[in-house]
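anyone seen this seq b4? input:
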Amino acid sequence: MTDRALSVVRAGALTTVQDRGRPGHAHLGVPRSGALDGPAAALANRLAGNGPDAAVLETTLDGCSLRPRSTVTVAVTGAPCRVTVDGRPAAWGAPVRVRAGAVVDVGPTVHGVRSYVAVSGGIAVDPVLGSRSTDLLSGLGPAPLTDGAVLPLGTPTDLHARVDVAPQPAPPVELVLRVTPGPRDDWFTAGALRRFTSGTFRVSPASNRIGLRTTGPVLERARHEELPSEGMVLGAVQVPPAGTPVIFLADHPTTGGYPVIAVVRPADLPAAAQARPGTPVRFVVARRRGGF
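predicted toks r here
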């Protein structure tokens, strides 16, 4: 049995393996998946001495606990949380050397939703369609972590983090999302379009890796016929019959039959990954065209 492995002591509410995802397979019905907060995952890899394609662990709200079978470097980024090694405080947002057999505990998030755990060598589960990411919608990739699972690790590289600690953006107190209108904004009333860009929504507890759901003002449709299913993109703001927007995240379906009122700029989506339930959400038009 190889010593390049991690034992999962505590899996947490939802901890998955993620890398930069598997874009380019929408024609097969396969979402892109990958880390929801890409910059935080990339920073964790850099601090741990990994290349940008290495797989990390993405935790949700209550963290996880891990026991390496060999000495490794671990870095935790994303949502701030308490990190300990064998019960002793360790650095968050910085590389930490962990000896074989010690238990690294990534605690509940203090702010935000998702923390990222990089281990030197990367999580070396078998790739599917070129990615090691867990896709909750299609079921591709490794299953979410369970207590007692063992994760293989890759061979450490000679990369050096070049920094001991790096600044990270704070999780949003208010989530401001820049959007490009369309393609189906003409399916909504003029009042709905005004409410979309002037009202305040809130993050719903029903949000997940597939989409960030909201509560708040109802957006009425001007057209009520059935919309044939059409392609969906990352960041699409779909409005289901209840009338409150859903922002599609990394595990989103590749097609959908509800109208898309706008699309969020990709640069704003990492903040959406860290927005807790109840966080205010505002949509700001980044490029105007008829109707807004």
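The mean pLDDT is 94. The chain has three helices and 20 strands. kinda curious what u guys think
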